[in-house]
Amino acid sequence: MSKRRNHRPRRAIKDPRGESTLFRARAVAGFALILLGLLALVGRYAYLQVLHHDEFATRADANRIKPRALPPARGLIYDRNGVLLADNVPAFRLEVVPEQVPDMKTMLSRLGSVVPLSQDDLDTFRKQLAQSRRFDSIPLKLHLTEDDIARFSVNRWRFPGVDVVPYLTRRYPFGELFAHVIGYVGRIDDNDLKHLDPARYKGTTHVGRSGVERSYEDVLHGTPGYELVEVNADGRTQRVLETHPPKPGTNLYLSIDVRIQKAAEDAFAGRPGAAVAIDPRNGQVLAMVSVPSFDPNLFVNGISTADYRALTTDPKKPLYNRALRGVYPPGSTVKPLIGLAGLESGLRTPEDTVVSTGQYCIPGTTFCRRDDQRGGAGKVDLAEAIEQSVNTYFYKLALDLGIDRLSHYMAQFGFGHPTGIDLLGESDGVLPSREWKAAHSKLPWFPGETMIAGIGQGYWAVTPLQLAHAIGTFAGGGVPYRPRLVMATQHGVDARIVPLPNPPEGPSLVSSRANWEAVDKGMEMVMYGDKGTGRALTVGFPYRIAGKSGTAERYSRTSNTYDDRSNLAYLASRNRAWFEMYAPADDPQIAVAVVLEAGAWGASSAGPIARHILDAWLATKGSQAPPFTPYKDASLGDVPPLSPEDVPVAPPDGDSP
Amino acid sequence: MIGPYLMRMRRFGRRLMTRPRIDLPLALGLFALAAVGLVTLYSAGDRSLSLVGGQAARFVMGAVLLLVVSRIPPSALRTWTPWLYVGSTALLVLVALLGEGRGAYRWLDLGVMRFQPSELLKLTMPMMVAWYLHPRQLPPGWKDIAVVGLLIVIPAGLIAEQPDLGTALLVAGAGAFALFLSGMAWWRIGLLLAAAAAMVPVGWHFMHQYQRDRVLTLLNPESDPLGNGWHIIQSQIAVGSGGIFGKGWLHSTQSRLDFLPEHTTDFIFAVFSEEFGLVGVIGILVLYAFIIGRCLWIAMEARDTYSRLLAGAIGMSFFVYVLVNGGMVAGMLPVVGVPMPLVSYGGTSAVSLLTGFGVLMSIHANRKMHQ
Q: Which of A364, A505, B237, B262 could pair with A480 as two cysteines, CB 3.0-4.6 Å apart?
């Protein structure tokens, strides 16, 4: 070879004869290698067929042993106190062993007249049939009714290879209360079979479809076991020789307290909206509701077409997870955080004041936006600006910060991107920024957009979870924790409960205690100050509450004039009501964000729901829930608008251009 | 308008029938192999005549394609090669894009029929390598080797991504054989093999979990009684229990009792080994060796570099099928979806194999004339 290489420089043109010779050599060498490979194969076959023939012949004769999969029991789901939220209950299903069925087609059509079989049942069965070994038992129809079982038992002799088999199915004892958190499992269909590991899911019929059931599918499922059974020459099971039990799935403990969850759902009284409560000290979600909800049990063994159509055509969209995916303009609820950004950036001190005259214009332009109070609130500092939700203060602050600093700071609080909760399908929301606008519009960024971003209007859109996360992060002294639903796991019923660590995502976002206290003061004044919107919400509560309301318009405003129509039902049709709260103000242990899709005012509509959640939380701490009479709200429908004497109607808040 | 065209077609058809350009020894070898395949299939498929009939129909279709392709002169093939290669690779990319987010996706649905573009590469790959090396100076230097490597890696990588490791192996093998036959220096081959061996841990990292499992299962089949371990054990029992002379045709017990999975497709060779024993195995391997040897003979007689490399590479890649499938059935190699050529049930591979042999027939018809 080396000789040929030495000659290369001289062979500037192709040398067909040389190539032909070279090829001949290569072809012979290649053929020799191939013969070598084939000889190796022959060697291997001789090894199996001559040297070990006796051994394999014996094994072939004794080959009456087949493995049979034992599916694992799915992990259970509990609330933080051990209340069972997702359970496995026994049920019956029809199974078919293909190799014992002489004629599958006829059998299926005849069986269909005894036990009703849906097209879904048949499609999934055929798909699994193609993927399984002929002696594997394949489920055909789940969740047989008593009637089905009775009818089949009488006709059983007609269907060799078909049998009624007990199995465990999923049940959600609390029904719709946890539908948007836990989600549900559904029957494995032919789509799932494409990506599930067939060995791991052999014998399993259900897989997590949404919520925690889907996000934690991997740990909830468990590991299948198998048993070795002896079969006779026809393939029928004679006896079980060996059993390797399956490893059940991991049990999960949610951080949610079922009592808080229930109180939150009840407080909505069926009005569409969502609420999320988070423990600011560790990011644990204490309650998460989306109203209206649906019964997840319907989905477990295949939902009927009528039920499904009812759910999908309901104008209130019960299947829509508003807490996780609903995006709403946050309105004034972000003002405390904007104020904090002013302090943190060094542009403002808590004492700096702004004069609110009822209207603010960008200096040198005619772009003007108004305050909510006619004539303005006068001279206000930060705390007063938060208390009275003074737009002018935040217009000016937003312009001074500029959109880049503003959105950078707000992004740290989790706006504009998923919070990273352990649920799939979270919305991003929209945090106004130059980048966002550049990606969605051809127009440049306008200063007016910065200004209205300061009061949570414009492009802003947040999910209830994002707002709860943001206010929880603030309440916890600015230390960001990823929201978490699952706080502990347990491998087996009697095993130790292992807490899942949830370390903070980073250092505190608030640089000094003084800044935190200045903003907190404003939020406490919302609840206790003379002009605060939440005054009526603190009655009888033993701890100090800090909060902020928000009322965001559902439609863009056409003029800058004031709308004097104060009919609550009318307002409810135009506004989205927000309320965020945390308590106790000096040592926050719970932070709540509530949105009502059709609420007249943040404080009077969404506020009482937040307060009910705090009451329920207090009750779980062992205290008596204090007496608290919520506002009557026009959107409840049955009460006429009340006169101001009856109800301390809060001053209008936070609605802006 | 259509008249002269029709007439030419008819003339082409007549020539096809009256003066087929085939190499008789190779044709006989293939015929014998197909016959063995059908006989085995009858037994493995529970004596289903419809199964055997279907496979025979595919053989006929393949034979027709073989005859048609055999009339295309190699020089024409060479002219089309880059287009065929680029076209088939583009189809692979299309499949990759369409398959986004679904598990294994290999098929292109044409409405009337579905086909696997990766199947085309089995032929267009060696064609492309031969086309590239044809005008260059041989043996190739590092630069040409690098270019050929790129030509191989792009489609093979796309196929491995699908994921279809078996076909990727066959396609890459076909290209590599063309390079080998071009006279690539032994020391360079050694160096590349050493480098490839060093890359094994990296490759392991990029493998799908199920592919890793298959390798691990091979090392310890008992660990996976519900999946591939079962296949391996049962297949070995079938082979081993066959002994020297086998249990006789239609007398395999393992497949009849359904212990043996995939016993008409990927594992049909286990049924063959059980029924015909080591004698049968040696017999069929000799038949394969004869076919490969005949291919290399045709290659040696070919007129130009392109034909030589192409014919040789097609012949040698035939060996990869036999080695990988035979090794898998005997528990030597991991379970990869490579059929036993012309014996396993399944249409696409039979048709594409026979088309490849059509190219060989054409090269044979245009061979160098000896003095």
A: A505
